[in-house]
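User: Study the shape:
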Amino acid sequence: MYLVGVDVGTTNTKTVIFDVETGRICAIGSRRTITRHPVPEWSEFDAEDVWRTVLQSIQAAVQQCDRPERIRAISVASMGESAFPVDADGNVLHAAIAWYDHRTAPEAQWWENTAGRERIFTITGHIPRLTYGVNKLFWLRNHLPQVFERMYHWLSIEDFVLWKLSGSFATDYSIASRTMLFDQRTLTWSESLLEQAELPVAWFPPAFPSGTAIGSVSKEVADYTGLPLQAIVTTGGHDHLCGALAAGVTHPGQLLESIGTASVLLAVSNAFRPSPELLAAGCTTYANVVQHTYATLGTLDFAGGALEWIVTLLYGQGKQGTVSSEIYGQALHEAAEIPPGAHGAITIPSFLGSGTPYGQSSAHGAMLGLTPSHSRPELVRAMMEGLAFWLRDNTAMFYGLGIAPLKPQITVIGGTTQAAPLLQIKADIAGCPINVPQITEAAATGAALLAGMGANIFHSYEEAASSVLHTVQIYEPDTQAVEKYNTIYEHAYLPARRLFI
């Protein structure tokens, strides 16, 4: 039997078909996620664009499937903060403002001043930032009152796709959390915050655990995509959390780093603990897709992107300064030949803010200790080491908060999992094994596993995660390198970091 998982990402929308019997992905459909820019500084997702790319990616995957009638269920992973306003007749009233769009900065500041930073965090587990859904609602109220007055539903990307697939209005706890209006203590919409925001609770869909069956595929969807009519539709989850499920990170104390343009370090815990230390560090903590657990996230907004940037800057060719995958791999290989410490070059990777655990959004990145003798490989090496020192600081933070062991095993997924030099450096600097499961499309695979939960194919999240057949590449820390990096950390990196953060 087969399960379908859809991942609506910022860059691409992908659908996988998971074969339960073999534990492998048997088909993948992919389409580019379309982003529109009505004003140069603005970014939006049009509802028709989103739905069309979802349908096309599902159709492309189903067409590769030998027996689509064996598909039992479908679910959705998605980015977390963008949403569509919908009227009482089901008409989408406005595009979804992209999660990273900065137009909502004034609204975010107003809401923090009005509701209180500590109060918001204690209720929602989220630190007031412009990215979250509530600020987009405020922006519509302030700038497009004619849209706001007609609103009847507020549907995050996942909720919108579930509605279009099945006709049912529903969300899951993790996606609901990204509105910054969801009470983590009760796992319900926060009446006190909604009352203060003057927003009706009826606008927000009922929230369920991830992997809850909410209906079945509509005839229109079945006719277009080839999905069987009886296929069950279930709630999904936030993309990073779905990826963690697919990678087997389901138990309290486990850590996962999801690397893309940004880096997210996710720790699983068994309770909601919005401590002052987490608030000061800039972490978010909210309901996981694995029921009865919570995910605490440390973040660095420019991580994989920083490595690509420095390689492109140093190795780029032509007018556009582009770098092929071969040249990128060559750059990392050359950097791997440089000894630990990059001959004195140090990177503080705070290029778009410090990230956790420092909580300094205005911080800037830096490269220090440079001399004319430094070459391209040494600068790339210094960048990789800077990213690894960030990981070390965050694992130490989670240990200090009692969320993770002193020397955990860290599972890594994402775009740089093929970058062996970076992963070995991370193992050496963090002083713990780095496990890299060979998973194709982790977020979409996690959504497929949640579909299996809703269809009663799996009876526990652990059973679902263990059904994924994959090999694991393990990067063990090198004892000599660990000792060298401990010295570099204490005598070079820490003093340099304190200059900038």
About this structure: The first helix runs from residue 47 to 63. The chain has a mean pLDDT of 96. The radius of gyration is 22 Å. DSSP finds 18 helices and 24 strands in the chain.
